[in-house]
Amino acid sequence: MMQLPSLSAFIHPAFWLVLGCAVSSAGTAEMTTERRAFFESKIRPVLVKQCYECHSAGAKKIGGKLLLDSPAEMLEGGESGAAMVPGDPDESLIIQALRYDGMEMPPDKPLPEGVVQDFITWVKMGAPDPRENKPRQVERMTVPDPATVWAYQPVKNPPVPVVKDGGWLRDPVDAFILKQIEQAGHRPARDAGAETLVRRLYMDLTGLPPTAEEVEAFVAALKAEKPGATSAYEQWVDRLLQSPHFGERWGRHWLDVARYGESNGNDGLSRNPSFPHAWRYRDYVIRAFNEDVPYARFITEQIAGDLLAAESPAQRDRQLIATGFLALGAKPAKAMNENFEMDVVADQIGVVGHGILGLSVGCARCHDHKTDPISARDYYALAGIFKSTETLWGAAALQALTAPQTALHELRDSPRAAPREEIEPIILAHKPRRAQAKAAFTYKNSDCLAMGVREAKKVEDCKLNIDGESKKLGASIPRGFVTSLGNVTLEKPLDETRSGRLELAQWLTDPGHPQTARVMVNRIWQHLFGEGLVRTPDDFGVYGERPTHPELLDHLATRFVRQGWSVKRMIRDLVMSRTYQQDSICEPGVGKADPDNLLHARHNRRRLDAEALRDTILKVSGGLNAQPGQGSLIQGRDVLINELGHLHQPSQHRSVYLLMLRNSMPPELTPFNLPDGTAVVGKRDVSTLPTQSLYLLNNGFLVKEAERFAERVLTDAGDEDASRVRLAYRLGLGRDPTAEESARAMEFMREIDLNAVSAEADDQKRLKSTWAMFCQALLASSEMRYVD
């Protein structure tokens, strides 16, 4: 068990600032899958369309001697200096030009505010740029041969390897792992201790820590095991899988993939239309994971739930809500955007591509993909399916200008969330140049509605958009799927009267599909082991990493399909493996030879994500309301809102139920790499910044919960300081303190009592203040924030 550092260190500001600055100074614009996708979808198309005519190697006359068609040229700049300063948009000339601040680019008219905000976001990221540094003339690329891409090959079921130490195995998974460890001349780590293992299980399966009593019961059950009986560990796993908190934990993982958000964002901070019915999709996802809806069915409902038969009105409602998967994306600005309809289609292709297939399909919008075997023809075959689909998002994203007759799904048998009259969103004082058209729909705040999609009135194939421009049309492309994906093909043309979404879902969930099962089992592995077998979970293409254990990946994909696409069954199998139950500490030689743990010869020690950290703090303090949150703070209010921070209200519910507004995510979560909901995120960034240290020191939420924690200790532990320290450790860390920790804690109390608490305070206030500081130190400790 890891020892708690000196408690006095946790409350000293210098400690936090030095630690935070020391780590953050090493930050770079690493080219992650998400950043590559952001550049390709948000930045490159604008550069090509708006800038290359005057600022590329192929331009007839280069304006200002400035080239923008390679990273090095942008940094070198032109006559006015460097075009861009990574990390600092205010000092970047390209941002000043786009803002029309001292210079005006493009010269004819300013770009939409949302586009300018995209460039600001990109520069803040550090301006990650995947382009080559040698500008080249634009040329049509030859689509790579699918046979050269590992992920496009059919899934095979390899034989289980034979290993030397057969006694180490508990599951076939272990044989694939141990084989590579032995080939490298190493041995796996020892088994994790029971105290370590039970906390790992609780955090991985429910996102909440065990109590000290649960830890003790788990340890006692393992010791009392009888030969031949179902193991106590197995019984504990099954109990956690049946917990309603399982769906809250694993549903949140999927919401990252589904780019979940309750407002549109993507149009600058001055315009952020709300999605007041998005929460129904959130609840659908949580329920689906709790009920272990087979993954194939889960995918089918999200793509074509409105086209499926239903045995009851309640089932019909769930299936309509599921299609919110395609409607929740951040819509581009309608104003001054002639590509609006195709931008929505691009978002839907993107979430299916990255989220389900693990492929970057979006590049093919403008040209045949330069690295992966995906042609522009394949892209527009998919685009025809979604162009023949009507997206229902309500009044958001200026839909009043183009609203269909019904702007949302009308539900028949879903619970109606209680109205929240106390929440009054701030409506943007928007003064359009001309009177804004009224929406073609009306509804009451109490109506039972959901975002989603349905069949369009007109089903049609999509014409190829030359260079991605919807006004420059080429040949009509028959609706279909990605033709390069192995042996899964479209046997006959799609029905002329239907969009093809149901057939798309059937194609994606075909047992022979090379991508779908591989991508999902890799996601499951990543959430249990810290890293996927493919460490770029949203990119199985040429740019992505190859699997560290390709045979194991195929073994799991095969098992997943044969076991009925059960997510719970796959999780159960993996946590029952010896590989999962390893300690995170290994022999020094193994760590040196394999610092990134590619062999999985030990368990990865991981920091809690934003939600798990907040939920853990609430549970430890005694402030957690374990009941599901009901509805949303903005339900029933389709409005344009600004000053979004005012809408966040205190809540004791789990973090998954907090208000998730794009451009203004919950302030308790944003310091710890919470996704912004604008893109598919299968793997969150993990950074260490000064803001995190300051949060643990000063944030009002943490201070309040530390005070609540202290009150709990003072109320339940009696008058003896030693008993209070013991209870604080048991509540906070699930264990008793060591003798050294107890002595250090007592010394901490004396230091605080003498130096940190005002002598004018009465005894009771001094007591509470002293223990609140101590409890805050425990809440901020590394043992609290990490899982071994």
Please tell me about this protein's structure.
With 788 residues, this protein is mostly helical. It has five domains: 7-18 and 698-787, no CATH class; 33-124, no CATH class; 173-191 and 515-606, no CATH class; 194-242, no CATH class; 247-422 and 439-508, no CATH class. Helix content is 42%, strand content 3%. The protein is built from 29 helices and eight strands. It has helices spanning 7-10, 13-24, 33-55, 71-76, 93-98, 113-124, 172-183, 194-206, 212-223, 232-241, 244-257, 279-290, 295-304, 313-322, 324-327, 340-357, 376-387, 501-508, 516-529, 550-562, 567-575, 588-593, 610-621, 690-698, 700-716, 721-733, 739-755, 763-780, 782-785; strands at 389-392, 409-410, 449-450, 452-455, 462-465, 473-477, 606-607, 786-787. The strands form four sheets. It has a two-stranded antiparallel sheet. Strands 2-3 form a two-stranded antiparallel sheet. Strands 5-6 form a two-stranded antiparallel ribbon. The longest helix is centred in the N-terminal third of the chain and has 23 residues, at 33-55. The chain starts with 6 loop residues before the first helix and ends with a strand. Residues 500-748 form the DUF1553 domain.
